[in-house]
Amino acid sequence: MKNSTLYYSVGPLLYCPANHTHIADSIIQERFGQKYSLALCLEDTINDRFLAQAEEILIHSLRQLYTASLSASFFMPKIFIRVRRPGQMRDLLNRLKESTGILSGFILPKFDLQNADAYIQAVSDIHCDFEQTCYIMPIMESPAIIDLNKRADVLYEIKEKLKPVEKLVLNIRVGGNDLCHAFGFRRNNRESIHGIAPVANIFSDIITVFGMDYVVSGPVWEYYNKEGWDDGLRRELADDRLCGFIGKTVIHPNQIPLVNEAYAVSSEDFKDAKAILNWDETNSSFVAASSDQQRMNEYKTHANWAEKIMYLAEAYGVRQPTHPPASL
Fold this sequence. Notes:
It is a single chain. The chain is α/β, with parallel strands linked by helices. It has 2 domains: 5-263, Phosphoenolpyruvate-binding domains (TIM Barrel, Alpha-Beta Barrel), CATH 3.20.20.60; 266-319, no CATH class. 41% of the residues lie in helices and 13% in strands. It contains 11 helices and 12 strands. It has helices spanning 23-28, 51-69, 87-96, 116-129, 151-162, 176-183, 197-210, 229-243, 256-263, 267-277, 299-316; strands at residues 12-17, 37-41, 78-82, 105-108, 135-140, 172-174, 216-217, 248-250, 265-266, 287-289, 296-298, 318-319. The strands form 3 sheets. It has an 8-stranded parallel β-sheet with strand order 7-6-5-4-3-2-1-8. It has a two-stranded parallel sheet with strand order 9-12. β3, α3 and β4 form a beta-alpha-beta unit. α5 packs parallel to α7 (197-210) and α8 packs parallel to α9 (256-263). The N and C termini lie far apart (48 Å).
């Protein structure tokens, strides 16, 4: 489990095609609020024939944001570029020049054993030649992790390969739609992806392999309008949290506040976490009732949970308790 709020702070990651010409204006005007991160995508959302044009638009957008930040005050999200290939990272950094200062890092799609060495070498080379820290977020979505006969070996080998750059891995991400695509699945706005057993089993294995050492973020929810989309998202977010995911990929600004709401810490959890982490280790008992006398807190059993709650509280805030109306 990562020991810094930084790894928990990506939050709702808003995906945007890199050829969106108004993205810089939207950020400067704070149209998406002040609690999200941004992914500018050069991969699946861009037609191959228009990749060069999308790169130029992306570079212009980041230069526009960088220039605006020198004279205006506005919320600057963590910004990541979803690339297609390892060499594209260095190429973009060279072309961005001083505006690399507002770039947080890169998203590495379809990360698997076929491309892991090349991506990791490219990341290592970048940090030898550039002063700026560039974080990475590999996406587990390759068909290679579907095969039950090889999945565990593949995931553990990927984890081993990531060790040299572990501190730079801000999140491990999962490609829910890509994995569903492999099976020909698509959930409706009332169904959680965690109810699709073949995909949920892959998620479970990813959490098992990576979840104790990395923050693993939840899959995209593709509904953002019409009746029921928000209830469906809340349902899936509850499943995400229960299964160990933190944060979520979003594809529309409507989804941002719901993700932030879902990961805000309850006041009960916050109080219990503080009590557990401040436990008097000279006390003869490592078990006590919670502050509201509702559940048992145990120092040896709940310490890791408590530490994670404190990071979430710093990243997402603490929800105030809601009190029922007084009876007449």
